[in-house]
Protein backbone atom coordinates (compact mmCIF):
# COMPACT_ATOMS: atom_id res chain seq x y z
CA UNK A 1 0.00 0.00 0.00
CA UNK A 2 1.70 3.19 -1.21
CA UNK A 3 0.92 6.35 0.77
CA UNK A 4 0.51 9.92 -0.50
CA UNK A 5 -0.27 13.08 1.40
CA UNK A 6 -2.84 14.30 -1.14
CA UNK A 7 -4.49 12.21 -3.84
CA UNK A 8 -6.39 13.90 -6.66
CA UNK A 9 -8.67 11.71 -8.77
CA UNK A 10 -9.04 13.11 -12.32
CA UNK A 11 -6.68 15.30 -14.33
CA UNK A 12 -9.35 17.34 -16.15
CA UNK A 13 -10.15 21.01 -15.64
CA UNK A 14 -10.83 20.60 -11.92
CA UNK A 15 -8.09 18.16 -10.93
CA UNK A 16 -5.32 20.09 -12.70
CA UNK A 17 -6.50 23.48 -11.39
CA UNK A 18 -6.45 22.23 -7.79
CA UNK A 19 -3.09 20.45 -8.23
CA UNK A 20 -1.56 23.68 -9.59
CA UNK A 21 -2.90 25.74 -6.70
CA UNK A 22 -1.69 23.27 -4.08
CA UNK A 23 1.79 23.23 -5.64
CA UNK A 24 1.86 27.04 -5.66
CA UNK A 25 1.10 26.90 -1.94
CA UNK A 26 4.10 24.58 -1.46
CA UNK A 27 2.22 21.33 -0.81
CA UNK A 28 4.31 18.20 -1.50
CA UNK A 29 3.42 14.51 -1.74
CA UNK A 30 0.61 15.01 -4.30
CA UNK A 31 -0.43 12.15 -6.58
CA UNK A 32 -2.77 12.62 -9.53
CA UNK A 33 -4.73 9.61 -10.79
CA UNK A 34 -5.64 10.06 -14.46
CA UNK A 35 -5.87 7.28 -17.06
CA UNK A 36 -5.90 9.44 -20.20
CA UNK A 37 -2.80 10.71 -22.01
CA UNK A 38 -4.85 13.60 -23.44
CA UNK A 39 -6.28 16.67 -21.72
CA UNK A 40 -9.28 18.17 -23.50
CA UNK A 41 -10.57 21.74 -23.53
CA UNK A 42 -14.20 20.74 -24.02
CA UNK A 43 -15.82 24.22 -24.30
CA UNK A 44 -14.37 24.51 -27.80
CA UNK A 45 -16.09 21.31 -28.97
CA UNK A 46 -19.21 23.39 -29.72
CA UNK A 47 -17.20 25.43 -32.21
CA UNK A 48 -15.61 22.25 -33.61
CA UNK A 49 -19.13 20.97 -34.33
CA UNK A 50 -20.00 24.33 -35.83
CA UNK A 51 -16.99 24.26 -38.17
CA UNK A 52 -15.32 27.16 -36.36
CA UNK A 53 -12.33 25.48 -34.69
CA UNK A 54 -10.21 22.40 -35.45
CA UNK A 55 -10.37 19.49 -33.00
CA UNK A 56 -6.60 19.66 -32.51
CA UNK A 57 -6.99 23.09 -30.86
CA UNK A 58 -8.92 21.39 -28.05
CA UNK A 59 -6.31 18.85 -26.93
CA UNK A 60 -2.90 18.84 -25.27
CA UNK A 61 -0.83 15.95 -23.93
CA UNK A 62 -1.85 15.29 -20.33
CA UNK A 63 1.83 15.33 -19.32
CA UNK A 64 2.10 18.96 -20.46
CA UNK A 65 -0.60 20.19 -18.06
CA UNK A 66 0.45 18.28 -14.92
CA UNK A 67 2.25 20.70 -12.60
CA UNK A 68 5.89 20.02 -11.72
CA UNK A 69 6.24 18.06 -8.52
CA UNK A 70 2.95 16.19 -8.92
CA UNK A 71 3.28 12.42 -9.31
CA UNK A 72 1.11 11.14 -12.19
CA UNK A 73 -0.41 7.69 -11.77
CA UNK A 74 -1.63 6.69 -15.20
CA UNK A 75 -4.50 4.51 -14.05
CA UNK A 76 -8.23 4.83 -13.52
CA UNK A 77 -9.44 4.88 -9.92
CA UNK A 78 -11.86 1.99 -9.40
CA UNK A 79 -13.02 2.32 -5.81
CA UNK A 80 -12.62 4.51 -2.77
CA UNK A 81 -12.70 3.45 0.86
CA UNK A 82 -12.99 6.62 2.94
CA UNK A 83 -12.90 4.61 6.18
CA UNK A 84 -9.44 3.23 5.36
CA UNK A 85 -8.55 6.38 3.40
CA UNK A 86 -7.54 4.32 0.37
CA UNK A 87 -8.16 4.29 -3.38
CA UNK A 88 -8.12 1.11 -5.45
CA UNK A 89 -6.63 1.54 -8.92
CA UNK A 90 -7.59 -0.20 -12.17
CA UNK A 91 -4.63 -2.59 -11.88
CA UNK A 92 -5.68 -3.60 -8.37
CA UNK A 93 -2.98 -1.60 -6.54
CA UNK A 94 -4.07 0.44 -3.54
CA UNK A 95 -3.07 3.94 -2.64
CA UNK A 96 -3.52 5.46 0.83
CA UNK A 97 -4.09 9.19 1.35
CA UNK A 98 -4.37 11.78 4.09
CA UNK A 99 -6.48 14.08 1.92
CA UNK A 100 -8.53 13.32 -1.16
CA UNK A 101 -9.84 15.54 -3.97
CA UNK A 102 -12.45 13.90 -6.17
CA UNK A 103 -12.63 15.31 -9.72
CA UNK A 104 -13.23 12.46 -12.19
CA UNK A 105 -15.91 14.39 -14.14
CA UNK A 106 -19.13 12.78 -15.28
CA UNK A 107 -20.09 9.85 -17.44
CA UNK A 108 -21.99 10.00 -20.74
CA UNK A 109 -24.75 7.38 -20.58
CA UNK A 110 -25.20 6.55 -24.26
CA UNK A 111 -27.24 3.53 -23.15
CA UNK A 112 -29.69 5.79 -21.33
CA UNK A 113 -31.85 6.24 -24.45
CA UNK A 114 -32.83 3.03 -26.29
CA UNK A 115 -31.13 2.91 -29.69
CA UNK A 116 -28.76 5.81 -29.09
CA UNK A 117 -25.62 3.76 -28.35
CA UNK A 118 -26.13 1.89 -31.64
CA UNK A 119 -26.89 4.99 -33.70
CA UNK A 120 -24.31 7.49 -32.45
CA UNK A 121 -21.58 8.08 -35.00
CA UNK A 122 -23.67 6.48 -37.78
CA UNK A 123 -27.02 7.08 -39.42
CA UNK A 124 -26.66 10.87 -39.38
CA UNK A 125 -26.57 10.89 -35.58
CA UNK A 126 -23.85 12.97 -33.98
CA UNK A 127 -22.90 14.73 -30.75
CA UNK A 128 -20.51 17.49 -29.75
CA UNK A 129 -20.21 15.78 -26.37
CA UNK A 130 -17.43 13.43 -27.51
CA UNK A 131 -14.33 14.41 -29.48
CA UNK A 132 -14.73 11.48 -31.86
CA UNK A 133 -18.09 12.83 -33.03
CA UNK A 134 -17.76 16.65 -32.82
CA UNK A 135 -16.03 17.01 -36.24
CA UNK A 136 -18.76 14.81 -37.71
CA UNK A 137 -21.39 17.31 -36.54
CA UNK A 138 -19.87 19.88 -38.89
CA UNK A 139 -19.74 17.37 -41.79
CA UNK A 140 -23.45 16.70 -41.34
CA UNK A 141 -24.39 20.39 -41.01
CA UNK A 142 -22.31 21.31 -44.04
CA UNK A 143 -23.79 18.51 -46.14
CA UNK A 144 -27.43 19.34 -45.39
CA UNK A 145 -29.50 21.36 -47.91
CA UNK A 146 -33.04 20.34 -46.91
CA UNK A 147 -34.92 18.05 -44.51
CA UNK A 148 -35.37 17.86 -40.73
CA UNK A 149 -32.67 18.52 -38.15
CA UNK A 150 -33.35 17.63 -34.51
CA UNK A 151 -31.31 18.80 -31.51
CA UNK A 152 -31.94 17.15 -28.13
CA UNK A 153 -31.17 17.91 -24.49
CA UNK A 154 -31.23 15.14 -21.84
CA UNK A 155 -33.44 15.22 -18.74
CA UNK A 156 -30.49 14.62 -16.36
CA UNK A 157 -28.08 17.28 -15.10
CA UNK A 158 -25.47 17.79 -17.85
CA UNK A 159 -22.24 19.60 -18.42
CA UNK A 160 -22.71 22.98 -20.06
CA UNK A 161 -26.50 23.15 -20.11
CA UNK A 162 -26.40 25.57 -23.05
CA UNK A 163 -24.39 23.34 -25.40
CA UNK A 164 -27.37 21.33 -26.75
CA UNK A 165 -28.98 24.52 -28.11
CA UNK A 166 -25.83 26.46 -29.08
CA UNK A 167 -25.11 24.00 -31.88
CA UNK A 168 -28.67 24.41 -33.17
CA UNK A 169 -28.09 28.18 -33.51
CA UNK A 170 -24.69 27.70 -35.20
CA UNK A 171 -26.25 25.25 -37.67
CA UNK A 172 -29.25 27.50 -38.35
CA UNK A 173 -27.04 30.52 -38.97
CA UNK A 174 -24.91 28.50 -41.39
CA UNK A 175 -28.03 27.35 -43.28
CA UNK A 176 -29.31 30.94 -43.31
CA UNK A 177 -26.05 32.10 -44.91
CA UNK A 178 -26.28 29.24 -47.44
CA UNK A 179 -29.86 30.36 -48.20
CA UNK A 180 -31.31 26.92 -47.41
CA UNK A 181 -32.80 27.72 -43.99
CA UNK A 182 -36.34 27.85 -45.35
CA UNK A 183 -35.95 24.29 -46.64
CA UNK A 184 -34.85 22.89 -43.28
CA UNK A 185 -37.18 22.14 -40.40
CA UNK A 186 -35.29 22.57 -37.11
CA UNK A 187 -36.63 21.07 -33.90
CA UNK A 188 -35.10 21.70 -30.47
CA UNK A 189 -36.21 19.26 -27.75
CA UNK A 190 -35.77 20.59 -24.20
CA UNK A 191 -36.98 18.88 -20.97
CA UNK A 192 -37.25 22.12 -18.98
CA UNK A 193 -40.18 24.55 -18.97
CA UNK A 194 -37.99 27.28 -20.55
CA UNK A 195 -34.93 27.58 -22.78
CA UNK A 196 -32.76 28.72 -19.87
CA UNK A 197 -32.91 28.70 -16.06
CA UNK A 198 -32.59 32.47 -15.73
CA UNK A 199 -35.75 34.08 -17.20
CA UNK A 200 -34.05 37.18 -18.62
CA UNK A 201 -31.71 35.07 -20.80
CA UNK A 202 -34.48 32.67 -21.63
CA UNK A 203 -36.44 35.54 -23.22
CA UNK A 204 -33.47 36.53 -25.38
CA UNK A 205 -32.98 32.90 -26.46
CA UNK A 206 -36.65 32.57 -27.31
CA UNK A 207 -36.21 35.45 -29.77
CA UNK A 208 -33.06 33.85 -31.20
CA UNK A 209 -34.93 30.56 -31.76
CA UNK A 210 -37.85 32.38 -33.44
CA UNK A 211 -35.47 34.35 -35.65
CA UNK A 212 -34.26 31.05 -37.16
CA UNK A 213 -37.74 29.53 -37.26
CA UNK A 214 -36.73 26.81 -34.78
CA UNK A 215 -39.62 24.75 -33.34
CA UNK A 216 -38.96 24.55 -29.63
CA UNK A 217 -40.51 21.57 -27.82
CA UNK A 218 -40.38 22.37 -24.11
CA UNK A 219 -40.95 19.82 -21.31
CA UNK A 220 -40.06 17.16 -23.89
CA UNK A 221 -37.40 14.52 -24.18
CA UNK A 222 -35.99 12.09 -26.74
CA UNK A 223 -36.96 8.68 -25.36
CA UNK A 224 -35.86 6.40 -28.22
CA UNK A 225 -34.01 6.51 -31.51
CA UNK A 226 -34.06 4.11 -34.43
CA UNK A 227 -30.96 4.78 -36.50
CA UNK A 228 -31.91 2.37 -39.29
CA UNK A 229 -35.28 4.02 -39.81
CA UNK A 230 -33.87 7.53 -39.08
CA UNK A 231 -36.63 8.17 -36.59
CA UNK A 232 -36.71 9.31 -33.00
CA UNK A 233 -39.41 9.29 -30.36
CA UNK A 234 -40.11 12.50 -28.47
CA UNK A 235 -42.14 12.25 -25.28
CA UNK A 236 -44.01 15.35 -24.14
CA UNK A 237 -43.98 15.26 -20.33
CA UNK A 238 -46.95 17.63 -19.98
CA UNK A 239 -49.39 15.54 -21.99
CA UNK A 240 -47.58 12.19 -21.85
CA UNK A 241 -47.89 11.86 -25.64
CA UNK A 242 -45.20 10.23 -27.73
CA UNK A 243 -44.46 11.43 -31.25
CA UNK A 244 -42.29 9.78 -33.87
CA UNK A 245 -40.23 12.21 -35.91
CA UNK A 246 -38.19 11.44 -39.01
CA UNK A 247 -34.79 13.17 -39.07
CA UNK A 248 -32.05 13.85 -41.59
CA UNK A 249 -29.67 15.09 -38.89
CA UNK A 250 -29.84 14.32 -35.18
CA UNK A 251 -27.57 16.08 -32.68
CA UNK A 252 -28.09 14.06 -29.52
CA UNK A 253 -26.84 14.89 -26.06
CA UNK A 254 -26.85 11.74 -23.91
CA UNK A 255 -28.10 11.45 -20.31
CA UNK A 256 -25.27 12.01 -17.83
CA UNK A 257 -24.40 10.77 -14.36
CA UNK A 258 -21.51 10.22 -11.98
CA UNK A 259 -19.14 7.46 -13.17
CA UNK A 260 -20.59 4.04 -12.16
CA UNK A 261 -17.92 3.33 -9.51
CA UNK A 262 -18.66 6.69 -7.86
CA UNK A 263 -22.43 6.29 -8.11
CA UNK A 264 -22.37 3.01 -6.22
CA UNK A 265 -19.57 4.09 -3.87
CA UNK A 266 -19.60 5.52 -0.33
CA UNK A 267 -19.07 9.18 -1.28
CA UNK A 268 -22.17 9.51 -3.48
CA UNK A 269 -24.92 11.82 -2.25
CA UNK A 270 -28.00 9.70 -1.44
CA UNK A 271 -30.09 12.70 -2.56
CA UNK A 272 -28.63 12.59 -6.08
CA UNK A 273 -30.41 10.18 -8.47
CA UNK A 274 -27.31 10.29 -10.70
CA UNK A 275 -24.96 9.44 -7.82
CA UNK A 276 -23.00 12.70 -7.83
CA UNK A 277 -20.68 13.19 -4.85
CA UNK A 278 -21.98 14.92 -1.73
CA UNK A 279 -20.25 18.22 -0.98
CA UNK A 280 -21.07 21.25 1.13
CA UNK A 281 -22.26 23.76 -1.46
CA UNK A 282 -20.03 26.52 -0.09
CA UNK A 283 -16.90 24.78 1.22
CA UNK A 284 -17.03 21.76 -1.18
CA UNK A 285 -16.05 19.49 1.72
CA UNK A 286 -17.68 16.08 1.98
CA UNK A 287 -20.32 16.12 4.78
CA UNK A 288 -19.12 12.89 6.42
CA UNK A 289 -15.42 12.83 5.59
CA UNK A 290 -13.70 16.12 6.40
CA UNK A 291 -10.51 15.12 4.55
CA UNK A 292 -12.42 14.67 1.27
CA UNK A 293 -13.36 17.44 -1.16
CA UNK A 294 -15.25 17.20 -4.46
CA UNK A 295 -15.53 19.68 -7.30
CA UNK A 296 -16.29 19.93 -10.98
CA UNK A 297 -18.88 17.92 -12.87
CA UNK A 298 -18.86 15.04 -10.36
CA UNK A 299 -19.92 17.18 -7.38
CA UNK A 300 -23.60 17.35 -6.45
CA UNK A 301 -23.91 21.13 -6.34
CA UNK A 302 -27.10 23.04 -7.15
CA UNK A 303 -25.51 25.00 -9.99
CA UNK A 304 -24.79 24.36 -13.67
CA UNK A 305 -21.82 22.11 -14.37
CA UNK A 306 -19.27 24.15 -16.34
CA UNK A 307 -15.57 24.81 -16.64
CA UNK A 308 -16.32 28.37 -15.58
CA UNK A 309 -17.79 27.03 -12.32
CA UNK A 310 -14.63 24.96 -11.84
CA UNK A 311 -12.54 28.14 -12.16
CA UNK A 312 -14.25 29.50 -9.03
CA UNK A 313 -14.46 26.15 -7.20
CA UNK A 314 -10.75 25.30 -7.49
CA UNK A 315 -9.51 28.24 -5.36
CA UNK A 316 -12.11 27.36 -2.70
CA UNK A 317 -11.06 23.70 -2.58
CA UNK A 318 -7.35 24.57 -2.47
CA UNK A 319 -7.81 27.14 0.32
CA UNK A 320 -10.13 24.91 2.35
CA UNK A 321 -7.88 21.88 1.97
CA UNK A 322 -4.91 23.92 3.20
CA UNK A 323 -7.00 24.99 6.21
CA UNK A 324 -7.98 21.39 7.00
CA UNK A 325 -4.31 20.31 6.72
CA UNK A 326 -3.52 22.85 9.45
CA UNK A 327 -6.37 21.57 11.60
CA UNK A 328 -8.51 24.64 10.96
CA UNK A 329 -12.09 24.95 9.69
CA UNK A 330 -12.66 25.52 5.96
CA UNK A 331 -13.83 29.11 5.55
CA UNK A 332 -13.46 29.94 1.84
CA UNK A 333 -16.92 29.97 0.25
CA UNK A 334 -17.91 29.18 -3.32
CA UNK A 335 -21.07 31.15 -4.21
CA UNK A 336 -22.34 28.89 -7.00
CA UNK A 337 -20.85 31.05 -9.77
CA UNK A 338 -21.23 29.48 -13.19
CA UNK A 339 -21.27 30.84 -16.67
CA UNK A 340 -22.58 29.78 -20.01
CA UNK A 341 -21.29 31.39 -23.18
CA UNK A 342 -24.43 31.11 -25.29
CA UNK A 343 -23.31 31.19 -28.90
CA UNK A 344 -26.35 32.43 -30.84
CA UNK A 345 -24.89 32.93 -34.32
CA UNK A 346 -21.67 32.28 -36.19
CA UNK A 347 -20.29 35.58 -34.88
CA UNK A 348 -22.42 36.38 -31.84
CA UNK A 349 -22.66 35.34 -28.23
CA UNK A 350 -24.45 36.09 -24.96
CA UNK A 351 -22.45 35.57 -21.78
CA UNK A 352 -24.76 34.31 -19.03
CA UNK A 353 -23.07 34.41 -15.61
CA UNK A 354 -24.97 33.73 -12.39
CA UNK A 355 -24.74 32.21 -8.91
CA UNK A 356 -26.73 29.85 -6.64
CA UNK A 357 -29.53 32.42 -6.40
CA UNK A 358 -29.64 32.76 -10.23
CA UNK A 359 -28.48 36.34 -9.72
CA UNK A 360 -26.50 37.71 -12.68
CA UNK A 361 -22.81 38.05 -11.69
CA UNK A 362 -21.19 39.76 -14.71
CA UNK A 363 -17.40 39.74 -15.08
CA UNK A 364 -17.73 42.82 -17.31
CA UNK A 365 -20.28 44.94 -15.39
CA UNK A 366 -20.31 47.77 -17.93
CA UNK A 367 -21.46 45.54 -20.79
CA UNK A 368 -25.14 44.72 -21.33
CA UNK A 369 -24.92 40.92 -21.18
CA UNK A 370 -28.50 40.43 -22.35
CA UNK A 371 -27.44 41.56 -25.83
CA UNK A 372 -25.82 39.26 -28.37
CA UNK A 373 -22.30 40.52 -29.06
CA UNK A 374 -19.59 39.87 -31.59
CA UNK A 375 -16.92 40.84 -29.05
CA UNK A 376 -18.09 38.04 -26.77
CA UNK A 377 -17.85 35.50 -29.60
CA UNK A 378 -14.27 36.62 -30.29
CA UNK A 379 -13.55 36.28 -26.57
CA UNK A 380 -14.83 32.69 -26.54
CA UNK A 381 -12.97 31.65 -29.69
CA UNK A 382 -9.68 33.44 -29.16
CA UNK A 383 -9.55 34.82 -25.60
CA UNK A 384 -10.76 32.00 -23.38
CA UNK A 385 -8.60 29.10 -24.67
CA UNK A 386 -5.25 30.79 -23.81
CA UNK A 387 -6.71 31.91 -20.46
CA UNK A 388 -7.61 28.28 -19.82
CA UNK A 389 -4.27 26.72 -20.79
CA UNK A 390 -2.00 29.39 -19.28
CA UNK A 391 -4.13 30.89 -16.49
CA UNK A 392 -6.64 28.43 -15.07
CA UNK A 393 -4.62 25.22 -15.42
CA UNK A 394 -1.55 26.85 -13.87
CA UNK A 395 -3.55 28.14 -10.90
CA UNK A 396 -2.99 31.79 -11.78
CA UNK A 397 -6.62 32.80 -12.45
P1 LIG B 1 -13.33 16.89 -16.98
O1 LIG B 1 -12.68 18.15 -17.41
O2 LIG B 1 -14.25 16.18 -17.84
O3 LIG B 1 -12.21 15.95 -16.38
C1 LIG B 1 -12.45 14.71 -15.78
C2 LIG B 1 -11.14 13.92 -15.83
O4 LIG B 1 -11.26 12.75 -15.01
C3 LIG B 1 -10.80 13.43 -17.24
O5 LIG B 1 -9.48 13.80 -17.55
C4 LIG B 1 -10.98 11.93 -17.15
O6 LIG B 1 -10.10 11.22 -18.01
C5 LIG B 1 -10.67 11.67 -15.69
N1 LIG B 1 -11.26 10.42 -15.17
C6 LIG B 1 -12.42 9.83 -15.54
N2 LIG B 1 -12.60 8.69 -14.84
C7 LIG B 1 -11.54 8.57 -14.02
C8 LIG B 1 -11.17 7.61 -13.07
N3 LIG B 1 -11.91 6.52 -12.83
N4 LIG B 1 -10.00 7.78 -12.39
C9 LIG B 1 -9.23 8.88 -12.63
N5 LIG B 1 -9.53 9.82 -13.52
C10 LIG B 1 -10.68 9.66 -14.21
N6 LIG B 1 -17.83 24.74 -19.80
C11 LIG B 1 -17.72 26.10 -19.81
O7 LIG B 1 -17.35 26.69 -18.81
N7 LIG B 1 -18.05 26.82 -20.93
C12 LIG B 1 -18.45 26.22 -22.08
O8 LIG B 1 -18.71 26.88 -23.08
C13 LIG B 1 -18.56 24.80 -22.10
N8 LIG B 1 -18.96 24.16 -23.22
C14 LIG B 1 -18.99 22.80 -23.24
C15 LIG B 1 -19.36 22.17 -24.42
C16 LIG B 1 -19.36 20.79 -24.51
C17 LIG B 1 -19.77 20.14 -25.80
C18 LIG B 1 -18.95 20.01 -23.38
C19 LIG B 1 -18.91 18.52 -23.47
C20 LIG B 1 -18.59 20.63 -22.20
C21 LIG B 1 -18.61 22.03 -22.10
N9 LIG B 1 -18.27 22.70 -20.92
C22 LIG B 1 -18.22 24.08 -20.90
C23 LIG B 1 -18.14 21.96 -19.64
C24 LIG B 1 -16.72 21.75 -19.14
O9 LIG B 1 -15.93 21.18 -20.14
C25 LIG B 1 -16.78 20.87 -17.90
O10 LIG B 1 -17.71 21.37 -16.98
C26 LIG B 1 -15.41 20.77 -17.22
O11 LIG B 1 -14.49 20.14 -18.09
C27 LIG B 1 -15.51 20.03 -15.89
O12 LIG B 1 -14.26 19.75 -15.36
P2 LIG B 1 -13.99 18.38 -14.56
O13 LIG B 1 -12.54 18.42 -14.22
O14 LIG B 1 -15.00 18.19 -13.52
O15 LIG B 1 -14.24 17.24 -15.64
Automatic annotation (TrEMBL):
Highest taxon, organism lineage: Bacteria
One Pfam family it belongs to: Pyr_redox_2
Family annotation (Gene3D superfamilies): FAD/NAD(P)-binding domain
Domain FAD/NAD(P)-binding: 5-304
SUPFAM superfamilies: FAD/NAD(P)-binding domain (SSF51905)
N-terminal signal peptide: none
Protein name: NAD(P)/FAD-dependent oxidoreductase
Lineage: Bacteria, Bacillati, Actinomycetota, Actinomycetes, Kitasatosporales
Amino acid sequence: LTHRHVVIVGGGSAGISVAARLRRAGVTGIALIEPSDTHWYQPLWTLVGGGQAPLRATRRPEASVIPDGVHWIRQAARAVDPGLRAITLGDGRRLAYDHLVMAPGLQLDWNGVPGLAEAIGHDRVTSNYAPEYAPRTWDLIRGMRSGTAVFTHPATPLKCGGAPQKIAYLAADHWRKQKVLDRIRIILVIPDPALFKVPAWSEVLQKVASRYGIEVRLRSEMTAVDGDARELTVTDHTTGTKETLAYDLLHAVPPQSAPDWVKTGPLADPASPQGFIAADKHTLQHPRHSEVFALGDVANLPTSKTGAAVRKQAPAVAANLLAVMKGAEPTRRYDGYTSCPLVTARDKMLLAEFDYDLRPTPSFPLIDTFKERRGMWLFKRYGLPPLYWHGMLTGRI
